[in-house]
Amino acid sequence: MKLYDLELSGNCYKVRLLAALAGIPLDIVAVDFLVGEHKKPPLIELNPWGEIPILVDGDVVLRDSQAILVYLAARYAGEAWLPRDAAGLATVMQWLSTAANEIQNGPGAARLVDKFGCALDKADTLRRAARILPLIDAHLARHDWLALGHPTVADCAVMPYVALAPEGGVSLADFPNIQQWIARIKALPGFVPMPGI
Which of 32, 93, 99, 148 is the most buried (most CB within 10 A)? Predict the structure, then answer.
């Protein structure tokens, strides 16, 4: 099973993190993002969106980090990481939506501006971060983990761009519950870091 990967990508890191925590072996294939390797054959044929990560598992080819997390958990990691009961699954999925929307467009996008020079509206990214981070911190004041009473793909999906928020000029100093949650994730057996985390 291959993961086409960029070390500095939080979306790629989500997949590497789940795989490490759940003991899922991956063959990591580094993509030369700066020369646009992800937008040329053979990668553009695997993902016409021209984005990474890309997971190839036999005949299964997937794009989008949230979808890849769901696939890996459902196929290889078991119900502890992705429950099959309706309420548990929906609880996890709402956090995957948060990762793809509020987190990606808030602290994730702020990091793209500061670290990579992307032409995005920095003020808008900061407004979005200022809205979502207090909500997550308040949630984590009452819960050790985002979705259930233990780590799930929800934590793997949300943590990277929250933990990397300072790289976009978004401080976590006022969010002690988020800081403690990140520390809990780092303490899990099998945890792997990435630059910035």
Answer: 99
